[in-house]
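Question thread 4412

I'm putting together a teaching handout and wanted feedback from people who do this every day. The idea is simple: show students a protein as raw sequence, then show them the structure tokens that encode its fold, then repeat with a second protein so they can compare. Below is the first pair exactly as I plan to print it.
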Amino acid sequence: MSNGLLKGKRGIITGALDENSIAWKVAEKAFEHGATFVLTNAPVAMRMGKINELAAKTNSVVIPADATSTEDLEKLYTHAQEVLGGKIDFILHSIGMSVNIRKNIPYDESNYDYFQKGIDVSALSLHKMLAVAKKMDAINEWGSVVALTYMAAQRTYPFYTDMADIKAMLESIARSFGYHYGVEKKVRINTVSQSPTKTTAGTGIKGFGDFFDYADAIAPLGNASAEDCANYCITLFSDLTKMVTMQNLFHDGGYSSTGVSQAVLDKMGIE
């Protein structure tokens, strides 16, 4: 049930592909909580998804933009402010892509051109979004930027290959830019480290199903759903968390703090 946490706030939500996307759920929840926002994604991704359906459902406008292009981002912020009637209060960065993973290339055999592409799309895009916004003064004071990440930035998961390094860079950018943007404009920047989630992107990772079940057995509360993650993002966009910044926030049912669970020991036949 909505209680209007985002009433009067304006936002930009990236990366909504289909109803399985966390970004899709964030858009639905933001709309329920009274926000107005624009949806954006790269033109090639938009052709693959259902973003126009989401726009109709949430009374929002779709603005195509390549987040690796500063020119596209300048147009995005300009158009978004025109559509929404003022500066931006919140941004969701939900952009991730690894060609090495798509092509099943092992980490120690990474194609470096693909690796660089992944860095540009999945991490440097956050820096560019923030840099362009800051230059244009497009985000209101006490605005909130949230980027989605994963715990492979801190611990090794063989199947996550180069995305682990890329997510580590993403989190570092959030901390570093969080300092500068916080000092100058009180804009807060955080990353949310989500449970394994059955999104279109997540299920494309080799061995995802088995790992999803493993994480669910480890986490005391089980895996957090995409909808749960959306609810958490809404709190971070709201004024209730205005003093939270430069943090990597685990939203994973306790998985990140659990060494091993009794359920896993039982499956292994260990008493």
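The second pair follows. I'd like the answer to focus on this one:
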Amino acid sequence: MNTIEVKDINKSYEKGKVTALKNVSFNVGKGELFGLIGPDGAGKTTIFRLLTTLLIPDSGEAKVLGYDIVKDYKQIRNLVGYMPGKFSLYADLTIEENLNFFATLFGTTIEENYHLIKDIYEQIAPFKKRRAGKLSGGMKQKLALCCALIHKPEVLFLDEPTTGIDPVSRVELWDMLQKLKTEGITILASTPYMDEAVRCDRVALIQEGEILNIDTPDNITGQFNKKLYAIKAGNMYALLKALKQYPETDNSYAFGEYAHVIVNGDVENLKSFLEKQGISGIEVRNTLPTIEDTFIAESYKP
């Protein structure tokens, strides 16, 4: 049985002028860590607000734990935990007061479900008397996750939980999510960071309100059926400009210190073309596709 079922959901804003979701469908199995991967404005937050019963869809249907998101909103709210993208706890309350408040709200105590939050709470416990509004970005996210978990939800919704926090905190949070899976908690998390997709059991690539692909990270990158090259040169701006001008370039874009390019033809011809354009210090190598490369390939429309 699927824990989350979404079928043909459509949602728009401003009286239909802005389309947020277009016929979105996906399922999440019990105990699965499922990722929604896409840039800002792709529709990820709208999906979270629908599944946590904060919005009503224009059409389509969705269920969480077998409950309809429109008819059974009260049951769903008691069984899920939600960590929105924007920090939404009480800034004037301390870490300890926020956590106690949410535990009381759900009729439980910190002690009863402490094992769920232990690993993260121990990192912020030395500052438990500090007001939430005075915390760093990473500490705010850790506190928000503790508050979302304190009533032991069956489903955990995390909307871009690592946005705006340092790299170390990002890794720690994803390690925590892997441990929560062992408790049988189903997790739906979104992120604009493609490198985090590999931490999920399955992912849905979403762009402009539409699902592009749903599969395991390995299967998605395995579907990349074109030759991908990484190219570096002395002048990256000039390189990117020249790649766009090459007639056999299928697609090209900056990727860290390299440019990634898909070429229809012999890459040696491309190298000769670049040299004729005055590009020097050229380094070309084959490279394996990442989730980001696959996302760009699927969303790119020449």
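Top answer:
Good format. For the second protein you could add a caption like this: The domain at 2-220 is CATH 3.40.50.300 (Rossmann fold). The chain has ten helices and 14 strands.
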